[in-house]
Amino acid sequence: MIEVKGIKKIYGKGENLNEVLKGVSLTVEDGSFSVILGASGSGKSTLLNVMSGLESPSDGQVCYDGTDISCYNEKQLTEFRKTKVGFIFQQYYLLPNLTVDKNVKMGADLAGNKNYVEIIEAVGLGEKRNKYPSVLSGGEQQRVAIARALAKKPEVLFLDEPTGALDEKTGRNILDYILKLQKQLDFTMVMVTHNQNIAQTANTVFKMNSGLIEKIYTNKNVKSAYDIEW
Fold first, then answer.
1. Rounded to an integer, what distance in angstroms lies between the CA atom of residue 216 and that of residue 145?
2. What are the CA-CA distances from residue 76 to residues 37, 81, 107 (Å)?
3. CA distance 23 to 131
4. Taking the chain (230 residues) in consecutive chunks of 10 residues, what is each chunk's mean pLDDT?
């Protein structure tokens, strides 16, 4: 379980002070899929960064099964990110000089996972293991990024607008892959998006506005990637 308690995030000082998060509290249950929904500038990506240990909060706590990571130093946060969480972003951040296999192996090596090829197969890229990113489509590159993140066997997967750079057809396919893998591998998933339709595929939605949680709701009828408007 992830518990966020009164998180604040402040950048700058004096006249340049910017309070991006203004006391956010929420709970994410193990094995669930939660969406942080909000417009640009609402603070959703900053909240994801703090929740995942990419950034430390200015105040408040982020607890994983009762352990507060908000007081961790950089070395401790690096180890936490290495062993506990995975990341998928709008940009793919693949190494262009490495094949699909080698890009995914980078994530697998962090967890000592020798069976990472299974993940490559699961995202439908088994026949392109030896291809380089430059010859792959945008959707295929994003699937490599998904496989790399999952190859390290994270307890929690954080996603920041993973379909934002993709066309509708490819975006639906990628979302479908992610949703199926989450159920198959039973990890906790937290996704940031501005797309209210994508939020319909989650168990719980945290709607943000101006650095605060404006509304929390649960989807009684969770939809698939192909059942939502785009």
1. 29
2. 29, 9, 19
3. 46
4. 98 91 98 96 96 96 96 94 93 95 94 91 93 96 94 95 90 92 93 96 98 97 94
The maximal CA–CA distance of the chain, rounded, in angstroms, is 56
pLDDT tens, residue by residue, 6-60: 999 999 988 889 999 999 999 999 999 999 999 999 999 999 999 999 999 999 9
Q: 163-186 b/e with 16+ CB inside 10 Å = b? A: bebbeeebbbbbbebbbebbeeee
In 3D, which of 180, 185, 194 has the Cα closest to residue 226?
A: 180
State the alpha helices, DSSP H only, in 85-198. Answer: 100-111, 117-122, 138-151, 168-185
